Amino acid sequence: MLLATWNVNSIMARLPRLLEWLDATRPDVLCLQETKVADGAFPTAEVAALGYEVAANGSGRWNGVAILSRLGLEAVTAGFAGEPGFPEVEARAVSATCGRVRVWSIYVPNGRELEHPHYAYKLAWLAALRDALRSELGAGHQLAVCGDFNIAPSDEDVWDPAEFVGSTHVSVPERAALTELLDLGLTDVPPRALKGRPFSYWDYRAGMFHKGMGMRIDLVLLSRAPASRVTDAYIDREARKGTAPSDHAPVVVGFATES
Question: What is the CATH number of the domain that holds 201?
Answer without folding.
Answer: 3.60.10.10
